[in-house]
């Protein structure tokens, strides 16, 4: 294990963490401001991936595919908010969980009906298909560098939106104290609709960007939802800063665990034991991180409602 391999895995962890941030940022705002547990958030991620893959295949334009995926997913989310989610705002969390879980099942069946059960293999944009020589001995995929750059740009834009604009002020007010924001005249319904649409756009963007490096398949939304929930718990519910820091931590810990634990165990344990134990320990690394953070800071690293 050399320095080049370690650096490459750190870049992989950074890219994964930034994609997790795109999903977790919308999820933490929806839960923090609207007090609504939306388990169907992962289905919006899946929708973005499927639409982007199909549009890219038909048009050969990756930029167009990402744009169409975001617009279509936001439109679906707006319809979902009006027909279902809006009626859950004042219901308890159990009802919200059951209702949005039902949406997951409907979304999975809708994908089966539209695109079939077979996974889609989304192609990488031709201009980004090759590697970039970062340093001697480290050719790194150009597309993964795009993921890192796009994630950082979106994170910066979201930070500026939340911290430097009037809309962001209303979002922060709702996350900090929703009832007081209502008393001060904030149009909570409009803020809720904006936050839900923003969360859907971020989830769709993450799905569209992740499609070329992961299998686009039914259930991918549920698979990414668990790490996203871990991120918002570690970062603090309703906190964009917390989601960003926690997403990077989870991305790095998860990637490092999968890359470094199995070979480290093979060096000290019999191969048969290491083959079973390594992946198991790597799979629980982010949960160990969550437990450690919550032991020290039960409300998360940067809770919005401190």
UniProtKB/TrEMBL annotation:
<feature type="transmembrane region" description="Helical">
    <location>
        <begin position="277"/>
        <end position="296"/>
    </location>
</feature>
<keyword id="KW-0812">Transmembrane</keyword>
<keyword id="KW-1003">Cell membrane</keyword>
<dbReference type="GO" id="GO:0006865">
    <property type="term" value="P:amino acid transport"/>
</dbReference>
<protein>
    <submittedName>
        <fullName>Branched-chain amino acid ABC transporter permease</fullName>
    </submittedName>
</protein>
<feature type="transmembrane region" description="Helical">
    <location>
        <begin position="244"/>
        <end position="265"/>
    </location>
</feature>
<keyword id="KW-0472">Membrane</keyword>
<dbReference type="InterPro" id="IPR001851">
    <property type="entry name" value="ABC_transp_permease"/>
</dbReference>
<feature type="transmembrane region" description="Helical">
    <location>
        <begin position="183"/>
        <end position="209"/>
    </location>
</feature>
<feature type="transmembrane region" description="Helical">
    <location>
        <begin position="97"/>
        <end position="122"/>
    </location>
</feature>
<dbReference type="GO" id="GO:0005886">
    <property type="term" value="C:plasma membrane"/>
</dbReference>
<feature type="transmembrane region" description="Helical">
    <location>
        <begin position="14"/>
        <end position="32"/>
    </location>
</feature>
<feature type="transmembrane region" description="Helical">
    <location>
        <begin position="62"/>
        <end position="85"/>
    </location>
</feature>
<feature type="transmembrane region" description="Helical">
    <location>
        <begin position="215"/>
        <end position="237"/>
    </location>
</feature>
<feature type="transmembrane region" description="Helical">
    <location>
        <begin position="142"/>
        <end position="162"/>
    </location>
</feature>
<keyword id="KW-0813">Transport</keyword>
<keyword id="KW-0029">Amino-acid transport</keyword>
<dbReference type="Pfam" id="PF02653">
    <property type="entry name" value="BPD_transp_2"/>
</dbReference>
<dbReference type="InterPro" id="IPR052157">
    <property type="entry name" value="BCAA_transport_permease"/>
</dbReference>
<dbReference type="GO" id="GO:0022857">
    <property type="term" value="F:transmembrane transporter activity"/>
</dbReference>
<comment type="similarity">
    <text>Belongs to the binding-protein-dependent transport system permease family. LivHM subfamily.</text>
</comment>
<keyword id="KW-1133">Transmembrane helix</keyword>
């Amino acid at each position: 294990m050399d320095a080049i391999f370690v650096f490459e895995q750190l870049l992989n962890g950074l890219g994964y963490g930034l994609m997790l941030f795109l999903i977790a940022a919308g999820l933490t705002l929806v839960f923090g401001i609207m007090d609504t547990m939306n388990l169907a958030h992962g289905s919006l991620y899946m929708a973005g991936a499927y639409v982007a893959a199909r549009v890219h295949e038909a048009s050969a334009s990756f930029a167009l595919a990402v744009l169409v995926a975001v617009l279509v997913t936001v439109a679906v989310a707006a319809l979902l908010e009006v027909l279902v989610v809006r009626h859950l705002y004042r219901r308890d969390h159990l009802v919200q969980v059951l209702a949005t879980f039902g949406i997951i099942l409907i979304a999975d069946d809708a994908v089966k009906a539209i695109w079939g059960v077979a996974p889609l293999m989304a192609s990488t944009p031709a201009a980004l298909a090759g590697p970039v020589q970062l340093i001697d001995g480290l050719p790194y995929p150009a597309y993964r560098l795009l993921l890192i750059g796009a994630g950082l740009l979106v994170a910066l834009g979201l930070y500026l939106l939340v911290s430097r604009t009037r809309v962001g002020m209303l979002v922060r007010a709702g996350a900090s104290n929703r009832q007081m924001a209502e008393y001060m005249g904030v149009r909570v319904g409009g803020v809720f609709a904006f936050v839900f649409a923003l969360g859907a756009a971020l989830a769709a963007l993450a799905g569209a960007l992740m499609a070329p490096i992961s299998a686009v398949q039914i259930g991918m939304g549920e698979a990414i939802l668990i790490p996203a929930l871990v991120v918002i718990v570690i970062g603090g519910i309703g906190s964009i800063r917390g989601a960003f820091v926690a997403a990077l931590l989870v991305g790095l810990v998860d990637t490092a665990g999968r890359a470094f634990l199995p070979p480290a165990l093979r060096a000290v344990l019999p191969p048969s034991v290491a083959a079973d134990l390594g992946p198991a320990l790597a799979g629980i690394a982010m949960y160990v991180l969550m437990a450690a953070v919550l032991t020290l800071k039960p409300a998360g690293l940067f809770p919005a409602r401190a």
